[in-house]
Design goal:
Structural class: alpha/beta
Number of domains: 3
CATH topology of the largest domain: Alpha-D-Glucose-1,6-Bisphosphate, Chain A, domain 3
Number of strands: 23
CATH superfamily of the largest domain: Alpha-D-Glucose-1,6-Bisphosphate, subunit A, domain 3
CATH class of the largest domain: Alpha Beta
Shape: globular
Oligomer: single chain
Length: 577
Amino acid sequence: MNWIEVSEKWKTATNVPSYLKEELEEMSQDEQKLEDAFYRNLSFGTAGMRGVLGVGTNRMNIMTVRKASKGLANYIQSKGEVASRKGVVIAYDCRNFSSEFAMEAARVLASNDIKVYVFDALRPTPELSFAVRHLNAFSGIVITASHNPREYNGYKVYNMTGAQVNLEEADEIIHFVNKIENELEIPVKTEEELKGIGLIQMVGEEIDSIYNEKVVSISENSNLSKEVDVSVVFTPLHGTSNVAVRRALQTLGYQNVHIVKEQEQPDGNFPSVNYPNPEEIKVFEKAIDLGKEKDADILIATDPDADRLGVCVKNEMGDYILLNGNQTGALLMDYILSQKSEKGSLPENGIVFKTIVTSELGRRVAESYGITCEDVLTGFKFIGEKIEQYHSSSKHEFLFGYEESYGCLIKDFARDKDAVQAAVIAVEACAFYKSQGKTLYDALVSLFKKHGFYTDGIFSLTMSGKSGAEQIVGLMNHYRVNVPVEICGIQVERVEDYKSSKRKDIATGEESIITLPQSDVLKFFLEDGSWICLRPSGTEPKIKFYFSVRDETSEASDVKLAVFKTELKRQVDEILG
C-alpha cells in the first residue's frame, strides 16, 4: 500500500480524532507535506521513537502511540504471565499531548491484560527510571522529546533494571512493533473500565517521597548548607523538575534558592525560549538577569524531562559563563571522588563511565584517584547496562557516569541520567568551594592546570525529511570511503568505525576489532592527541560532529578547536555541493 492509499484510509477511519482529520484535510492541498507525513512509518528504534507532532504514520500522534504500545504489549506477553503482572510504569513530561499519549499507551497495554501504573501528573524522566525499580515492574515508558524543539514528542521504553532497553531488547520490541500492519485497527477499552478492574493504577506522592529520600542520600557533605550561604538561581525551563529539584534542595537545607518565575510553570510551547535546551546559553538569559540581581553563586537549568543539567558559574571577571557537559561532568566527578577519598570511603573496585564522544578530562580525573574509567557508546542506555552488569557480577562499584550532552548519574537507584541528582551535587560542590573561598570556575581551572587544558566542541547539521536522511547517509559514506590522512595539517593516526567494528592504523594499515556494539559512528584520532567524531543522531534529523582538543594553554586549545571546526564545515559544504 503506497502513501496515498494510507492517507486515504486515515481520512475515512472512524477512530482517528477529528483534530487530526482536520489537519489531514488542510495538508491535502500540499502533496509534499502529505507525502512526508505518510511515506513511511515513524521509526521505532533503539531509543524508542521521537518525531514531529501531527497527522500521519510518520508523525507522533494517538494512532502511532497505539501502534508502539501494541507492539510493546505483544513483546511483554511473549515474556510470560509474570511479566504482564509486573506491568509497566508510565510517566510523561510537559509537552503538548504528553498526558494524552501516556494514557493512550496505558489503555492499550491494559486492554491486553498488562498491569499499568501511571503517574498522576508530569514527572522527571529519572523518577520514572527509579519507579520501575521501586515497583518491581517489568518495563517503563516515558512520553518525552527531551530537549527537542516544541514541535516534537517521543516515546522511550525502559527495562526492569530501570535503564532504557538494551539493543537486544530493542530489536525484539521493534520486531513486534513492525509486525503490526495497521495502527487504525487496534482495539482499546475505556480508561474508566480499565481503572475499574484495577489494570490502570495511578501513582504519585508515594513514589515522590521515596525518590526524594534517595536523591538527598547522594550528598557528600549534608551539613554544608548550615555552614555556608550559597545563592542559587534555578529554572526548570517550563519542564518537569520544578518540584523535585526544589524539594531536594530544601530537604538538604538550601534556602537561598531563587526560581526564574517566567519559566517556572510547565508549558509545552516553551514561551520564553525558542529551544528548551540547557546546552544553549540563550536559555539562561532570564536566569542570568536574576543571578545578577541576587548575586547568585550558581545558575542551574534542567531540560523539559529533567535528565540534563546546564550550569552557569562566574568567571574571573565576575561574568556568568555556561559550562559544557564535559566540564560539568568532570567537576562533579572530581568533587565526589575527592570527598570519598578524604573520608576513606573510595572503593578499590570503583568505576566511572563516560561515552566515546566525551572528553578525556574525565578519564584523567578518575585515574588520578586510582579509579577505572570505561568508555561506552553514545547514549545513557549503555551506561545503565554496564551498571547492571557490574552490579550483578560485583566486579566494580559504580561511582559516577556522564556524557558530554549534559547528562550524568551519581547513584544508581535510577539508571538513566538524572538532572535532579546533578542539581543537588552541583549546588553542594558550589557551597563546598565557596567555603574555601573559591568558585566552581576556580575549581575547573585547577583541574585544567592539573590534567591539561581540554577544549571540546560540537556542531550539528539539521537535515529534515527524506532528502535530509539521504544526505546524512551520503556524508557518512563519503568519510568511510575517503578516510582523511590529515586534518588541518595534523596527521590522522587511526580511525575507528563503530559500524564495521574495526579500528585501523593509518600508517601501517593494521586493523583490530572494536568490542563495543555496532553503531553508525566514525572517530578520527590525530597525532597531537585530538580527535574528531561523526555521528548521526538517533532521535533527531541531524548529523553531529564532535571535537576534543588538548593543549598546554586554554588559548591554544580554543584556537585549535576553531580551526578544526572551520575546516570540517568547509569539507561538508564541498561534499554537499
